[in-house]
Design brief:
It contains four helices and four strands. The protein is mostly helical. The strands form two sheets. The chain has a two-stranded antiparallel sheet with strand order 1-2.
Length: 159
């Protein structure tokens, strides 16, 4: 994949980078030159949410006619639908950020001041240095506390 080259067509930034999953998002929904990147992501989110709601609505209509009222299948399908939507949006958001050459749009939290990274590596996509703490070391700290919490919870439920 080559480098994205923006071209201006009647006030719209048109980017063809091949990363965006929807051809319409590459051209028509790309951020306008005079609006905020947050607004562009908002409308991209709305479009994605709308199409996922169409899927949920079709399933709801089918289940209304085919399944009994208060079916467990409907509850499980709604839970799976919501998880799949959130994970798909996270992936699409990253794709759009790379395609539109935008960073830090969805980050609402700052890094902890006490964070002590073990190494720094270069992010292959953005090219910036990222502080890294190994996952296995993080797990060695989290697992014992999780076991303690589980034992306390089991003890409270049995009494």
């Amino acid at each position: 994949m080559g480098q994205a080259e923006p071209t201006t067509e009647v006030g719209v930034l048109s980017i063809d980078c091949g990363v965006c999953s929807s051809p319409r998002l590459r051209t028509e929904s790309a951020p306008l030159c005079d609006i905020s990147q947050h607004v562009a992501f908002y409308f991209a989110f709305l479009e994605s949410y709308f199409w996922f709601l169409v899927i949920a609505a079709c399933f709801g209509v089918a289940s209304y006619f085919l399944l009994p009222q208060y079916s467990l299948i409907i509850a499980v399908a709604n839970c799976l639908w919501s998880v799949v939507f959130v994970e798909q949006w996270k992936r699409q958001e990253v794709d759009l950020a790379v395609c539109w050459n935008v960073r830090s749009v969805s980050q609402f939290h700052s890094k902890r001041a006490q964070f002590q990274p073990e190494t720094e590596t270069k992010d292959p996509v953005t090219g910036e240095m990222v502080k890294v703490f190994p996952a296995w070391k993080r797990l060695t700290k989290q697992v014992p506390y999780g076991c303690i919490y589980q034992m306390i919870d089991c003890k409270q439920t049995t009494t």
